[in-house]
Amino acid sequence: DAGVTQSPTHLIKTRGQQVTLRCSPISGHKSVSWYQQVLGQGPQFIFQYYEKEERGRGNFPDRFSARQFPNYSSELNVNALLLGDSALYLCASSPTSGVQETQYFGPGTRLLVL
Amino acid sequence: DQQVKQNSPSLSVQEGRISILNCDYTNSMFDYFLWYKKYPAEGPTFLISISSIKDKNEDGRFTVFLNKSAKHLSLHIVPSQPGDSAVYFCAASGANRDDKIIFGKGTRLHILP
Fold first, then answer.
1. Does the beta carbon of B93 lie under 8 angstroms from any beta carbon of chain A?
2. In chain A, positions 24-83, which contact chain B (CB-CB < 8 Å)?
3. Which residues are CB-neighbours of B111 under 8 A, at least 6 positions away?
4. What CA–CA distance (Å, rounded) separates A16 from B6?
5. Could you give the CA distance from residue A43 to residue B19 in angstroms, rounded to a whole number?
C-alpha cells in the first residue's frame, strides 16, 4: 500500500509570495494533520482536518490555511511568505481524528523562502 | 515555553550496547507519550507509545519507561544496531480528543561500529 505522499518535494519562493502544498493520505485514512518543522526543532502542529472539517489549529497566523477534499487529500496554503516560513512541512494521516491514533507521516515538502 | 524537552541534542553509542534517550515534560495533563524515529529525507515513523496508566511498554528491542512523578520518560534500545542511527523525537498529548501532539526537539543517535 502507498504511504502518505506529498508534493512538491522541494520549493523555493520569495518573500510575499503564496505557496500551496499538497498531501495524499493513506487509503482509508480520513484525518490529515499538517506540521511545520524548522531546522533544529521538532514538528509543530499547524492544522488537523477530519472528514473535511477543521478539528484543530495550532498557534500559526491567519496566513496559514488548509482544506480537505472529498477524497481526503489536503492542501496547505501559506500567503505573504516570510523568511521564517522556511521549513520542512510534514503531512500525517490517521484513520480517525483520535489523538492516540498512530499518525503516519509523509516525507515532507522542504520550503525555502528567499 | 517548551512543554516537551529533549536536553541531549546528540548521543553516540557503540553497536551492541544499550542506547538510552531521555525526555522531560512540564505539562501534568499529558496522558499519552510517543517516540518517533526520523531518517534524513523521510518523515517521522512511529516507534512506540505509552499511556500514563503504565510505567513501561516494550516492543522488541525498544522499551519506553515513564516516571510520572518526575515527569520523565526514556527510550531504551537494546542491543543498538547501525540502522538505529536516526533522530528520535519524544512527543506527548493530553487525554482529550482534540488535544494535539507536542514534539520535543529531537535527539540524534549515532551508533558506532
1. yes
2. 35, 40-45, 48, 55-56, 58
3. B12, B13, B14, B15, B19, B80, B81, B82, B83, B84, B85
4. 34
5. 23
Which residue is listed with cell 499529558?
B30
Per-residue pLDDT, averaged over B13-30, amounts to 96
Whether residue B98 has pLDDT greater than 80: no
Residue of B62, B32, B57 whose CA lies nearest to B47: B62
Contact B103, A42 (CB under 8 A): yes
Torsion sign, CA atoms A33, A38, A42, A44: negative
C-alpha grid cell, residue A73: 487529500
Below-70 pLDDT ranges, chain A: 1
Quick check: B100 and A90 CB within 8 A?
A: no
Amino acid in position A80? A
Residue B105 touches chain A, beta carbons under 8 Å: yes
